[in-house]
Amino acid sequence: MAGLYAGLILKLMGFDIRIFELNDRVGGRVYTHRFTQDPNQYFEAGAMRLPRIPEQQLVFELIELVNSMVPPALQVNLIPYVLYDAAGNNLVYMNGTRQPNGQTMTMSYADANPGALGFPLPASDQGKTASSLLDAELGPFLQALDKNFLDGFAQLLAYDNYSLYTYLTAFGGWTDELVNYTEAMTSQTNQFHNSLPELVIENMDFSTAGWFTIANGMDRLPQACASIIGMENITLGARVQALEQLADGRVAVHWDGASTPDVFDKVIAAVPPAVLRMWQTPQWSADKTHAIRAMHYEPLYKIGMRFQTRFWEQVPAPSHGGQSITDLPSRWFVYPSYGIGDSGPGVMLLYSWMTDGAAFLPQPESERVRIALRDLQAVYGPAGVDVAGQFIESFDVAWPTMWATGDAMFFPGQFASLFNIARAPEGNIYFAGEHLSVNHTWIVGALDSALLAVQQLLGSGQVEPPRPKGAGRRVPHRFDYSPLHSVKPTPGPARRPQPGPRSRNGGVRWRFESL
Question: 240 — phi, psi (to 5°)?
């Protein structure tokens, strides 16, 4: 999306542009797979939801813009996204435990009986949910971000050298058992070893009650953008291999479909660092090459499974949207927010990332499908569901095997040491991508970074995001976080932030999730 958005801004400003796209589709990690053309027979292999919070405003403004410019057939229509089943019927399967009646635990049961989940916790913590434990430790950071994002993020950066695991154990005195409990219930295996600022920012996006997705597929947004840019300006299936800085300052783009390079006045490399590293480029500084080499992306694995019925809505504890959590290889079952109540076939998404996602990579496709069906049967078997008998077909995407390799998820210290270096232009070559925004993993991160790259390219910080004619700017969107990085990470133990009044983040269910 970063390349599309940068191209859209420049095209609307009257510049001649050309986009080179490796795939046979636009959108990057906005990727909708359709099993059939029948209604609701699709799943999101990439981005799947949009939180309506001020930090994500740019995405909603883009949707308003494209809808003002495209014909009705290409309109991008928002529908509610169900984060949790309203009745608390999403399921929890941890450590082989079930409810006393033999059924798989519901979320509401697990919340009321956290000690029944089988985690070896001290008696003082047996009755506490994972979210309540995390809120006691991390809530003050959310309070600061909610009050003033820039000031709150500056406060977070004082702890940039710490992982969430180190922060909880060193500052909170948590045991490994307590970390495992909260990580298993809110995240994926080993994600708490990522940067503390990274994970607090990620959870902030889940603290809103307003969630949306795009009717008939998230890929309608990049398709609408492409229609405005013009497909004649987008070359699909183009594998860029080298960027060459010419003596006159222009940049030559070498790609595998051309016998001679295409030459441009300026170029935006809107690609993940793993892609950029494989290109032949000018010799940049040691700091720049280190940033490209080191910025961490986490593995993501998604498999969409199509069944004869939406059986998850027909069991005694039906899930109408939301997601179930397990400690099985298939960590989270995500139920579609579209087509709820439909008769006939339905599609469910199984989602794993970090260490859990990487475990699927060496498995052949047939084994990945077998494991997914086995995990679903373990959860739905007690309700009398024959999962394999309902199965029709599947499609999966292992993002580490794709050009993206996953999504950005910084290790400790990487915001302070790599972020601004990676965003700095090199001659007439500029850089964009969700890894170059504070809002990693989200579409808004791609848009943020693209807007900054266009401002750098034009030498003007006054370039505004394009909006529909007559639309006013509702909330100032701050995308350049560079002043924050004058804050020096704490070399040793720092004073922990103290809790204060909560506003929008009060009573949230903590979770650390991508897309």
Answer: -70, 135
Instruction: Write the CATH number of the domain with boundaries 129-201.
Output: 1.10.405.10
d(CA 427, CA 429): 6
Between CA 337 and CA 414 the distance in angstroms is 35
The secondary structure element, H or E, covering residue 150 is helix 149-157
List, in order, residues 6 or more apart from 494 with CB less than 8 Å away: 158, 159
Q: Where are the domains of the chain?
A: 2-33+50-72+219-296+413-484, 129-201
Instruction: Give the whole-angstrom CA distance, residue 5 versus residue 454.
Output: 10
Rounded CA-CA distance 75/67 in Å is 5
Record the tokens describing residue 320, joined without a space: 């109408």
Question: How do residues 450-468 score in pLDDT, each as one tens digit?
Answer: 999 999 999 988 888 998 8
Class of domain 2-33+50-72+219-296+413-484: alpha beta
- pTM for the structure as a whole: 0.93
State the CB neighbour count (10 A cutoff) for residue 365. Answer: 12
Task: Measure Cα distances from 451 to 10, 43, 236, 440, 446 in Å.
Answer: 10, 29, 23, 15, 9
Burial class, 378, CB count within 10 angstroms (exposed 0-12 / middle 13-18 / buried 19+): middle
